[in-house]
Specification:
It contains 18 helices and ten strands. By secondary structure, it is α+β, with helices and mostly antiparallel strands. It is globular and about 70 Å long.
């Protein structure tokens, strides 16, 4: 859906090449050209129509309610707040609907097998880019059903973001390969165009106040599948050729690290899957029975990169995150008092990388809280309290682990260093 900002770098010749026929009269021609590029046959014509911005917003809102319960949204919002990705007054459901509604130019509904162009999308080059992008989705859907592809595993897994990047990155690559061929060039995307496209970070400025004011994590979650997915698809295409279009669906990337580093995908370097600490290891089995698990999920290189860049700096954060090998979290809630407790673990490619992240994560903690008090510090462990409650953070070997949000009356024993 996020194709509006791509139109800003549209080749001038593409706009000049527009024919005076209506937009949807071009569907068969565009689909046929995409078929030649990918080798995928067009199995059926794709119904297409214009949709008002107001109806699209209602659609997004309804999909949000269909796909997630209030409890699930509350849990995800709580996790984002406890890690410091969003401020404490952030309304995840509202902000998500506002952000997607503001940024969208078009979308393909893989349930209805129909594409929609929003009536707010500028006529001419921008509409044509939107049409090509959504037809690329539709053609992929006819050979690799997108609904099934996107719903594999947990929606909170890092792998889910990687699959989204496959879908959006491929459609973005095909859009610009089509445009290149349409203007007399090769059916591929030039490196300089990729650099220009991925330099953009979404439609922002005075006309896009939601995106401009959104937390970094929300912005990058929206843009990552398009920008990094585009670079990933280009790397796969240049290595595997046309076979790469099928390959990324048949063997989906297992992590955002594989998207960010295509070599890891090509060499099938799978992430580790460490278990976060159990709350009973800290407060005992009886007391742990007073808590329930609200949510579990993975923390990938993308998540760690955004977190570090938000509180440290861009280059240093991205460099440190590239040493990630696995990560996960578990969110608990006290059954009676309703306060949350977060346990977390990340695995790194060496003890030195783990130690480096252990030091950086302390800076993240200090940055996201108004007040942080240290109770104890030694070579590989710190304990103290922050805005969310008491915490314990420790490093052992290649693992960094933490428990955060405990009430003052809960004693935190030394961690099990394993």
């Amino acid at each position: 859906m996020l194709v509006r900002f791509f139109a800003a770098v549209m080749l001038a010749a593409a706009a000049a090449a527009q024919t005076p026929v209506s937009l949807f009269a071009q569907v068969d021609e565009v689909a046929g050209e995409l078929s030649k590029i990918t080798g995928w046959s067009v199995k059926r014509r794709v119904p297409s129509e214009m949709l008002s911005k107001e109806k699209f917003r209602k659609y997004v809102d309804s999909r949000m309610k269909e796909n997630a319960s209030q409890q699930e949204i509350h849990a995800e919002e709580t996790v984002l707040k406890m890690f410091g990705f969003v401020p404490q007054d952030f309304d995840l459901a509202k902000e998500t609907v506002d952000l997607v509604s503001e940024q969208a130019a078009a979308y393909y509904d893989y349930s209805k097998k129909r594409l929609f162009i929003l009536d707010s999308t500028q006529q001419g080059a921008e509409q044509r880019v939107a049409l090509v992008h959504e037809l690329a989705h539709a053609l992929a859907d006819q050979h690799h059903p997108l609904g099934k592809f996107l719903k594999k595993g947990s929606p909170d897994d890092d792998a889910a973001m990687a699959r989204q990047a496959v879908m959006e990155g491929q459609a973005t690559w095909l859009t610009w390969a089509y445009m290149s061929e349409h203007n007399g060039g090769k059916a591929e995307v030039a490196p300089e165009l990729i650099a220009e496209l991925t330099r953009s970070a979404g439609a922002d400025g005075a006309d896009y106040p939601v995106f401009s004011n959104a937390p970094l994590y929300m912005k990058e979650s929206l843009v990552f599948p398009y920008n990094e997915g585009l670079k990933f698809q280009d790397a796969i295409y240049r290595k595997l050729g046309r076979a790469g279009f099928d390959q990324v669906f048949r063997r989906a990337p297992s992590s955002t690290q594989q998207i960010l580093h295509p070599r890891a995908y090509l060499e099938d370097e799978k992430p580790l899957d460490p278990d976060p600490p159990e709350i009973r290891d800290f407060i005992g089995k009886t007391e742990a029975g007073r808590f329930r698990v609200l949510m579990e999920g993975s923390m990938g290189e993308f998540d760690h990169s955004v977190l570090l860049r938000q509180y440290i700096d861009g280059e240093q954060g991205a460099r440190a995150a590239s040493h990630w090998r696995g990560g996960s979290f578990r969110l608990y809630e006290h059954k009676r008092e309703k306060f949350p407790v977060l346990t977390y673990v990340s695995e790194w490619d060496s003890p030195e990388s783990a130690r480096r992240f252990f030091d950086l994560y302390q800076r993240v903690m200090k940055g996201r809280w108004k007040k942080m008090e240290m109770e104890h510090r030694d070579e590989g462990k710190i304990t103290g309290s922050g805005d969310d409650g008491r915490f314990q953070l420790w490093v052992s070997g290649t693992k960094v682990q933490s428990i955060e949000g405990m009430r003052a009356d809960f004693h935190l024993p030394p961690p099990l260093l394993h």
